Structures are given as C-alpha cells and as structure tokens.
Amino acid sequence: MSHAGPLTKVELTFECEKLHNADVLSKSDPQIQIFINQNDKWVLHGETEVVDDCLNPKFAKSFILDYYFERIQKIRVKVFDVDKGGKKQLIGQLTCTLGDIVGCRGQLVRDLEAPQGISKAGKIKIRATELKDMSSIVHFKLRGNDLDKKDFMGKSDPYLNIFRANLDGSTTLVYKTEVIQNNLNPKWKEFTIPMATLCEGDHSRQIIIECFDWDKGGDHDLIGKVATTFSALKQGATFPIINEKKQSKKKSYENSGELILEDFFVEKIPSFNDYLIGGTEISVMVAIDFTGSNGKPSKPSSLHYRHPTQPNEYASAIMAVCDILASYDSDNHFPVYGFGAKIRGEEKTNHCFALTGDEAKPEVFGVQGIISSYYATLDRPDLKLNGPTKFQRIVKAAASKAKEMRLNDDVQSYLILLILTDGEINDLDKTKQAVISASKLPMSIIIIGVGDADFGKMDELDSDEEKLSVGRKSAKRDIVQFVPFRSFLNKPTSELAAAVLAEVPGQFMEYMTEEGIKPHPPPSETELADIQARRAQIQQNLIAQYGNAPNQLS
C-alpha cells in the first residue's frame, strides 16, 4: 500500500560571498539561520556555527531535509552578524523553495535581500545534495606531529578544516575541529561525521583536510593540506601535510608535519526502515470525541452527521491515517475508544469507553471496523453526547498499553494514539502530566482537530520548540503532533496523513536510541513466507467481512 513520503533526503550547505561588513573595527562574524514554512508560519529549523571575522564564509553545519517533488517547500535563509555578546544584526536574507535549489542542478546562487540601511548584502550559495547513505557514521580521532611553527612569539595554534570534493570541482566544508593553543603536536577531540556528509557514500571521492594556524585577527595561516579519500583513510594511519607554496620553492622540502589517524572506524546506525524490516509492530489506538459541541448526529450541521455519499471529517481523518498505519500492524486489530459522553445511563461523563461495548475487548478488525464501530456508537440509544473535553484518561489508557509493549522483549512494538476532537481541551495540566509520563514509553500521540473550534491550547501539547513541562517535570521526548483537519479541506487526504505522520519516525528513533534498543535481524526466507501468508489471510478476512473495498464507506 502506498502512502505519502519524501521523494528523497537532501543536505543543504551554505556559502556566502562579499557580505556586507557590519563591524567597524573588524570583519563581520556571520551565522545563518534557516526557517521552514509550516502552515503559513515560519518555523526556525536550525542555525549554523558563527564564522569569525569573515566576509566570504563557508559554513560546516548542514541541514538535512525531506524533499517532496509534489510540494512547494518554502525556506527562508537569514544571514546575521553575531557580536561577542551574542547579539545578532541582520545582514540579508533569501526566500526560495527547495524546488528552486534542486531545479538549478542542485545549486542556487542569489543576491541576498538587504535590510533597510544596507545597499548590498552580498551573495549566498545554497547547495542541495541527495544523500544516498544515512545509516553510517564515521568516527575520527586525529593528532598532528611536528607541525610547522607559524607564530613569531610562540608555537602554532592549529585546527583542521575537512572538505568534501564535489562532482563539479567545488568543495564543501563538512567539519571544523577546535583550536589547540600553542602546540606543534596537537591532539584533537574525537569527532564524528555522517558518511553521506563526508563523501556522499562514495569511497573514492576526494577528501581534503586543511591544517591552519589560528590567528586572533582572523588571518589564519595555512600550515598545509592532506588530499585523500575515504578508502585511503581506512587503509592508512599517517599522512604527510603538504604546503604547496613551500614545496614549489624548496627542493629539500618534505612536509609541514604529519597527520596521524589514531582511530578511524565506521558505525552503522540503524534506520527506521531497519526496525520495520526487523519486524517492529506499529500499533494504533483510536480515541473519538463524543462531546455535545459536535452537535446532534442526526442533523446535517453536526460534525458527526453521516452523509449518504461522503464521510464526515472524523471518518475521513481515521481512514487517511489508519489506512497507512494498518500496513505495519500484523493482525489489523485496533482498540477504539470514545470520550466526552454518557453511556448506559451513567450519571457522569465517561472520558474513556470502548466502542465495542466490552471494556475487556476494545479491539475491532480492520480500518473499516473502526468506522463501523464509530457509526454504531452514534446509533446507540443510550449514548448522550455531553462534555467537557478531557484527554487525561485516554492518554493514560494508551500509556498502559505502551508499558505492556515495553515489557515484551520478543516483539518490538510502538504505539500511536490517534485522538480526534472538535473542541478545546479542559484538563490541560492533567493531560500534560500524562503526556510527560508517556514520553518515557514507546508511543506517540497524534491529535487531529475537527471543526472550527479554537485549538490554541493544542500547540502547548505539540511542543516542537521546547520539551513539554509542568512545574519541575519535563517530557523526555516530544511525542505529540497536532494538526487541524480544516487546513486540509479540499485537499487529498494523503496530505493530511503526511502531515500528522511526519514526526513519527523521528520520535520512534529517538525512543529506540535512548533505550539502546537495536532492530531485530531481517527475517529468514521461511519467516518471510510465514509473514506473507499471515498478511494474505488478513486481507482475505477483510474482504470476507467488508467486501472488495474494505475501507470504502457505503
């Protein structure tokens, strides 16, 4: 089953030329911030390092983005001068799309838009490189031996710049070490570079390591270079550092020191796909809002109204999300709950009840089973839509299931709680506490807002900028993603699904990494045959129960 996903991943790297000098007594100290347009709001994605005293900087920090061919992905790049106290002054900015960069054969060069008071801000070059291998990390431990002395009153203050050679003959700075003060035999701290960033997975791609003597005024002196490849780095331990200018002048010249590889190895980092191939289960629990603010289900104005020819917003959202996730659930059984209503003659509002009517058996079969139980609940004569809207019990119920998953060593599982609601949350602090507790468990929470209500408080749960907190307690991870359904009206439901599921792989990987959980090995041929047989049987059962189009509403 196909679903929305990135066409590929691209790495963005940045260079600037002839920047406006914002400093009086020295040169600008530039830094770049990159913003992504999300729902017509500019969200800070990240920032580069600060390059001291430089008007033509090449930034080592890169950014990896999903590239969707079918989408307009706006980005905004701002270039700042950062003073010693951390204060930023805007030099210039550029707004473009990821498609603009990719469409220019992967490299866009534009004039920066200058702010008021600056006539020319300078130029920016943005390179987009497709990443072919995201799973390997290269570990380096380097030291220098007998480096050239560059300082008159002392020894050199060496640091390294590591560049990747590009296919068009240009180079990209991929890492800069720390400066070792007054030392001709420096030992730099161990560091790592993603394989894709270092050489784009090409083991024969040239890698250039430049050794400089740092100067306080910004005029750093080149000690020499090492030109090598990933393959050569794997084989060799000592490399001569060559200063070509010295080499051309002195016949007796040998080198300007040596670069010694004390340690060099490749670490394979598991990917989200490695876990799926290893058999990790992605389970889904659905919770539906039955509060009175939805309106009487029999009236066309109600959000729960069952239209004769098309699904309502609740049903559309359920199918859009669960149709994708069903592919990763081995048995296609989903627990489905309601909240915000009185049932079975209860005096108090029930904020967590199984739509099956059996609290011990809350699961239904297939995505159509979710839809059928939803509509069957609306038809119950003992259902009274009430309120208020509270999430705490639902989140706790999901956390209880996730806790059971964590205790099972044989089967790796991850739970996604899908909450569909039409109103503002009324137990925000208690829900925050429940989410903070759940952030330690293998689960994510997706909230889809249905209707035109004010969903402002949902942004507090979806804490992208900083971790969710209440008092002194903070979430271990960000596990909540909120999306208003109305933002996707008259758009393919695949766009809604892509939006709400976009953060799940990252949240999943963060949990597995923090817990030190490795993916299971891929299945054997025999195991794979058994899996395929089970999946085929599930599909047959779905067709037998719901017809040839199991997710089609009648």
Detailed description of the structure:
With 554 residues, the chain is α+β, with helices and mostly antiparallel strands. It has 13 helices and 27 strands. Helix 8 runs parallel beside helix 9 (428-438). The chain is elongated and about 95 Å long. It starts with 7 loop residues before the first strand and ends in an 8-residue tail after the last helix. The model is unreliable at 1-7 and 548-554 (pLDDT under 50).
Quick take:
By secondary structure, this protein is α+β, with helices and mostly antiparallel strands. Helices cover 23% and strands 31% of the residues. The chain contains 13 helices and 27 strands.
Instruction: Tell me the fraction of residues in β-strands, as a range.
Output: 25-35%
Q: State the oligomer.
A: single chain
Low-confidence stretches: 1-7, 548-554
Determine the mean pLDDT: 87
Report the end-to-end length measured between terminal Cα atoms: 22 Å
**Cα shape:** elongated
Structural class: alpha+beta
Helix content: 10-25%
- Largest beta sheet, briefly? 7 strands, mixed
Radius of gyration over C-alpha positions, nearest whole angstrom: 29 Å
Question: What is the count of β-strands?
Answer: 27
The total count of helices amounts to 13
